[in-house]
Design a protein that fits this description.
This protein is an alpha+beta fold. It contains eight helices and five strands. Strands 1-2-3-5-4 form a five-stranded mixed beta sheet, with helices on one face. The relative contact order is 0.07.
Amino acid sequence: MVVKILLIVSIVLQLAATSVAIGLVRKTKFNSVWILLIVTMLFMTASRVLQFINFAPRGTASGWIIALSWIDIVISLALTVVLFNARRLVEYIDRLIFQNSLTSKRILSTILRTEEKERSRFSKELHDGMGPLLSSARMSLSALSTEGQSAVNLDIIANTSHVVDEAIRSLREISNNLSPHVLGEFGLGKGVENFVGRLSGIHPATKIEYTTNLRGERFDTDIEVILYRVICELVSNSLRHSGASLIALSLDYDGAGLTLDYSDNGCGFNPASDAGSGMGLGNIASRINTLGGRLDLHSARGEGMTARVHIDLARGHE
């Protein structure tokens, strides 16, 4: 009777250990160690079952059979304890990885917010400090009398006025690039439209097609700023590196998420080998990661580039 109980307990413990090992297989992405352990546990369980079937008709057992049964109990109990602790360890590691991921996202999000805050401050200082000074210089030049001036002096005045006008235009461009006022005041759709419009005048050789179904909708500031910066980075890469004659981008809002589709017909590149060659792909990916978004990018030499970014607004700032 004692041997029967010992065998039953051993079988139960081994089945419990097997179930834990099966759970670990899923948690560890089908690691071969746990699969081999499951096979071993199943063979051990089958051995105990065969011992129980063989013992049942006789009803008696020698001392060494009882001793072996106790050894089986101890082995099964030890394996069960080991596997339960292994499961706790795997769960702890999973929690640690998740917490590290959250911490990394929060740190990067803080960095990006600080960067945007400094951009905005610097833009305001440029606009409020240098802007009035250049405007005053322009007014002073306009007030100069041109009567009785020699041709040389007139040329100097005209050239100086032109330089001041260019400085004012460049200052406005730099200030707007640092902190786009249209984005802050009217939202993502209008901000991107304004950016594309300005670039079309600067780069007439490259046609930029922009479509969106956004009609003034506003989103979290981080989402708007990060997506705007991602679009700027993608367009800048195409203009500087690809030699594209056509850039197409679209922003689609479906009530639950934002999707950016981007493509160019440029020279293309190898995403694996060119990721660290100044293309800014790592910067783009890290920015999207802070929003819990997904980036799918495809390119090859001579085949242009396509990219899709999707932000799930329900979990964009978990």
